[in-house]
Amino acid sequence: MAGKASRGCFRHSLLALLLLMLSACNIELNALPGAIAVAPSEAVPGSGWTVIAPGLAWREIAQDQDQLSQLKILRVDPQHYSFRAKYSPAKPYSLAQWRAREPEAAAIVNANFFDPSYLVLGLVISDGQAHGRPYRERGGSFLVKEGQPAVRANHGLSQRDLASAEQAVQGFPLLVDTGEQTYFGQARQERARRTAIAEDAAGRILIISAPLLGPTLRDLSAFLAQSDLEIETAFNLDGGGSTLMAVPDIDYYQPSFDAVPAILAVYKR
């Protein structure tokens, strides 16, 4: 893990330098790969959301006008879309490779943390097949049971909840629980690329990515709880060099620096 962390710090430093150079040259941040300006067909006035397709909406939020910590958010309505976890322990893949393996996916995002051997930390359930060792008291779980997705805090999950899931991914720390900020830690206070997943009050799933120098975990936890996103539960997925996100309908592609062994994919019903 230390090797991965050191590579991540080096890459973050290079990205920060690149961003400063672009700023000095007055180049738009949207010109960066993975920060593509999107122009889907139907913006919802006053909401900040743009409808990509029925049940699929997109939003970009810059906290305090800080473009480096900008969040890209995909909101998915389970009535129109389904979810599957995918895991390749023997061979991790890049974004392009995952897209080639899942050409029908309406969205792809990286999932669990993993060790240097590309074995997931926490639990992954892919089409009913469980991998890894589940977190019990830390972090959160994204679960699909009887076709219905949910985001839950792990401290409230039973063995039966996990055993009956068809799909699952896990991560940490827990960022929001019952609408309240849950992460106040002093650790991991560096700014970094982030990936998170959440469920809002209407039962929709929010996939959240900070593709540049995103907020600290504490700031992200506070922002998600205080925002108008109406988030009930949210937790952090693997970030840094693993941050990966694709939404083909709007030509948005955020490649990861490192190949990843586990993703969560979204499909039209």
Structure commentary:
- By secondary structure, the chain is of the alpha+beta class.
- Helix content is 17%, strand content 35%.
- The protein is built from four helices and 19 strands.
- Strands 1-2-3-4-15-14-16-12-13 form a nine-stranded antiparallel sheet, with helices on one face. The chain has a five-stranded antiparallel sheet with strand order 5-19-6-17-18, covered by helices on one side.
- A hairpin with a 4-residue loop joins β14 and β15.
- The protein is globular and about 40 Å long.
- The protein starts with a helix and ends with a strand.
- The relative contact order is 0.22.
- The N terminus is likely disordered.
Radius of gyration: 17 Å
Mean model confidence by pLDDT: 86
Walk across the major sheet and give the strand order.
Answer: 1-2-3-4-15-14-16-12-13
Number of DSSP helices? 4
For the report, how would you describe the main beta sheet? 9 strands, antiparallel
Catalogue the unreliable spans. 1-10, 16-41
The secondary structure category is alpha+beta
Strand fraction: 25-35%
Count of DSSP strands? 19
The H/E string reads HEEEEEHEEEEEHEEEEEHEEEE
* Shape verdict: globular
State the helical fraction. Answer: 10-25%
Tell me the distance between the termini. Answer: 38 Å
